[in-house]
Design a protein that fits this description.
This protein is mainly α. Helix content is about 75%, strand content about 0%.
Length: about 325
């Protein structure tokens, strides 16, 4: 337990450093000391307080929560599928959530309806992928199903992409530009960070009590069942948590890929596969990664802002290929 606490403290320190860097960096540079005075409510300049509290802090909070949700969803999906390449983006969950959210935008639905539509899209695509990969959700995932699973995910992601294109083609011209910026993963409009933080805390609170069962499930259904774990119920719960976490992340910031793949894999390399340590560490790592990527998107060519999703893809694709190549070499 002492080792776990040390790992969490290191992750928390990295996340706090990423927050401080995000609040100090931008088209208007603000010193770290000034940022800390603003956050602490001390004697700071009004201009710095306005920039930090009204512009950078809400976006930084939203970025951290979205990254944490995607990392948690990725960790759960990788355990559920027993495949290190499983990821909400690759398996079509992000695409399904995006199609549902864009459909809600098209009809001018409320924010609550947008989140519900994104959740429905994510659940539908995830169910379809699982059905295509192995037909029966209650059955154990066989090692040979990994290839079918990834191919099914690619196919469903392409289908979701086609639905997104159709929605964009019939959307009014005034809406298309905003939809496109949201679709490629942009946190500029994520002013309300509270739903993402609420979903992050709820998802982690639901997942942590299942950590022991997830450890056993990763060794096979027979082992889990023999030690009193209801494998079917646990798999269904993990599936629902991952789907809803992905939906809230997509509804908040659009389709940001590869965070759910990279963060859990990096954490496993350091802490191993014990979910009691892995899940909180993945949340901290995913949040810090997306926060750093969003800070780079705001500052690389400031005042012009780059889409955060493009930067995560530029980082994530080489890492994904390295993981894929490493798995092939191990085989």
């Amino acid at each position: 337990m002492q080792r776990a606490a040390t790992i969490w403290l290191i992750g928390l320190a990295i996340a706090c450093g990423a927050f401080l860097h995000a609040l100090a960096t931008g088209s208007v540079a603000i010193g770290a000391g000034e940022v800390m005075r603003v956050v602490a409510g001390g004697n700071a300049s009004p201009d710095a307080a306005q920039v930090v509290l009204e512009l950078r802090l809400p976006r930084a909070l939203a970025a951290f929560a979205v990254g944490a949700l995607l990392a948690l969803a990725g960790a759960l999906m990788q355990t559920l599928m027993r495949n290190a390449l499983a990821d909400p983006y690759l398996l079509g969950l992000s695409g399904g959530a995006a199609a549902g959210a864009l459909g809600a935008m098209l009809v001018g639905a409320s924010l609550l309806a947008l989140h519900l539509s994104a959740a429905g899209g994510a659940l539908f695509t995830a169910t379809l992928v699982l059905w295509l990969a192995r037909r029966d959700f209650s059955a154990e995932i066989e090692p040979g199903a990994a290839q079918r699973l990834l191919l099914s995910g690619v196919a469903i992601a392409a289908l979701a992409g086609a639905v997104v294109v159709l929605i964009l083609s019939v959307a009014p011209e005034a809406q298309v530009r905003g939809m496109l910026f949201w679709l490629i993963g942009d946190l500029a409009g994520a002013a309300d960070w509270r739903p993402a933080w609420l979903a992050m805390c709820a998802a982690l609170a639901l997942a942590m009590p299942q950590a022991r069962g997830l450890n056993l499930l990763s060794r096979g259904d027979l082992t889990a069942e023999s030690l009193g774990v209801d494998a079917r119920r646990l798999r269904l719960l993990a599936f629902l948590i991952a789907s809803i976490a992905t939906a809230v992340a997509v509804a908040t910031a659009g389709t940001i890929g590869f965070v759910g793949l990279i963060a859990p894999h990096l954490v496993r390399l350091v802490v191993g596969a014990d979910h009691r340590v892995l899940l909180p560490a993945a949340v901290l790592t995913g949040g810090a990664l997306l926060l750093i990527a969003d800070t780079l998107a705001r500052s690389l060519v400031a005042p012009t802002q780059l889409p955060t999703g493009a930067l995560t893809a530029l980082i994530g694709v080489p890492v994904f290929l390295a993981i894929l190549w490493g798995q092939g070499r191990d085989r």
